[in-house]
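Incident review: delayed structure delivery

Summary: a single-chain prediction request sat in the queue longer than the usual turnaround. Root cause was a stuck worker, restarted by the on-call engineer. No data loss occurred. The affected request and its eventual output are reproduced below so the record is complete for anyone auditing the incident later.

Affected input:
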Amino acid sequence: MPISPAVPASNGLILAEELMRSSGVHPSAIAAFAHSYRTLASGETGILAEADLEPIESLPRLADLETDEVAAKEALRQTAVVKLNGGLGTSMGMERAKSLVQVRPGKSFLDLIARQIIALRGEYGVELPLLLMDSFRTQTDSLAALAAHPDLAVEDLPLDFLQNREPKLRSDDLTPVSWPADPSLEWCPPGHGDIYTALDASGVMDLLLDRGFRYLFVSNSDNLGAVPDPRLAAWFVGSGAPIGAEYCRRTPADRKGGHLARRRSDGRLVLRESAQTSPQDAAAFGDINLHRYFNSNNLWLDLRALRDTLRSNGGVLGLPIIRNVKTVDPSDPTSPEVIQIETAMGSAIEVFDGAIAIEVDRTRFLPVKATSDLLVLRSDAYLLTDRAEVRLVPTLTTAPLVELDDVYRLLADFDARFPYGSPSLVGAESLKVKGDWTFGRDVTVVGAATMTAEGAPGVIADGTVLGRAG
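Output delivered after worker restart:
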């Protein structure tokens, strides 16, 4: 929707900056928002045209790396880990951090992450600090959960820091929206690209550097495959690059995920998200043979290079914007339309000269975006190693594909329908559930199985084998 001539864009920015200052938002975050606002107000949409991009045909592979153990230990000694932990799991009906969901009985994402870090510390004799980038909605519960791991804290370093917030903007005039029914809905996170500003504004970046931690591994807290691998740490440190990103080969299931490309104008790597793609380029965006690599959102950073870049640019990294149009109350489609200005963490590869990327396999990409993902992760298709790493059982090369009916979308409804946990999926190719079924104890799926709706809610009896031939 075009900006109203009655309220100049500059006035909207002034109002937004005043609101942020009065709410205690850090000056660096205000500066980053102002840069994004001016980009938005100029008419920039963040669209990356296919004609301006060159596909990436190949990348170096983690599987081919030859790493010296001494180099790996030295790289890990200088590395800290940040998990993006601001998400509430609202798509699954949650009102607290998604990372608190149980993956195994009595073990949440955060529990397993803590155990992974502690195992690596013991194996390599390094400090390897873990910090969460929390939101104000996830901080309290997440820190309480980490209290169960008293050995996790590293002296003089916090266990978390807070991401910033910014006002939602009315789509008609780009002024901060007012919503007295729930003022908290007037604010939104700036996307996970805010990590760079949050590291700076919180003082964590300087604190880590002062303590001798030059490098950072960043990933999502719902991705248990994203372990800080010493081989990758050695690869990144040895490269001398300012930033390195992990990418996986795309499959038909990854057509919607952001992909890697090279910008023709300057030869820099770029990350193109679906929201940055015009309708006429949609077919090229989804072509997995043309654009072969999707973003795992696992990133390696040189904190010294990041600090130098931020200092030289007044605290602003200048990431490309994503214009996200929503309603101020996501649950009320009749509430005013707003624009949330977001940035993506992985898009920082285009900011730095010398950015690098590496191909990793799917074991490093196990995100849980829906209850169907959670069902597979909880099943016997995955095993939990002594180092708390989640791995497909050796007999499987790919995870079973699960599609659940909408009645399973919310976590509480999902758990109620699987009261004895996930059915056995180790022998399954796929499971499609249509309708409302409650699964009994010791249900097994073999091959491809489909449950179809039969009117009233049904029960799958204890010991049932679904998908058996004949």
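Verification: The chain has two domains: 45-170+187-364, 371-466.
Action items: add queue-age alerting; document worker restart procedure.
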